[in-house]
Amino acid sequence: MVLASASFAADAGELAFNACTMCHSIDPKVNDLPGPNLAGVLCRKPGSLKDFEYSEGMIAFAKLHAVWTPALVDEYLADPGKMIADTPMELPRGSNTPEKRRALVAYLQQHGGDAAKACPN
Ligand code: HEC
Fold first, then answer.
1. Using a 6 Å cutoff on CB, does residue 69 contact ligand 1?
2. Could you tell me the maximum CA-CA distance found in the chain, to the nearest angstrom?
């Protein structure tokens, strides 16, 4: 039973991440999308990928926050433009309900490599 519910949660995360794949990949080798690569984004410094041009809002945000904690990612997804005024990230309608955000953060944690896995909640 525990196993069944764990794999259900993983599927929910993968499904929810379909709303992100037009702009993001979690495969570290994919870097030709309009959004920054999300492999290891949990516990990574915001706005810190060298080959990605972030918004000024994201750069200012990074001065205030050492790393993307799960809680910060959840808050960003809830309303990207509220947290970072000029962020170009726009989410498909309905892709960021509280349930989906929980599944997305779990997905980024489980599939984002060792540092993301070890990132405290
Ligand atoms: C329309 C394109 C688009 C979609 C769809 C999108 N994003 Fe983004 N995302 C971006 C862009 C562009 C940035 C960089 C924002 C900035 O510079 O302010 C970003 C930044 C991020 C960051 C911070 C990355 C970093 O390196 O600091 C996270 C986390 C994130 N997105 C998660 C998601 C998730 C999860 C989804 C799906 C629910 C999603 N995004 C959907 C375009 C998108």
1. no
2. 47
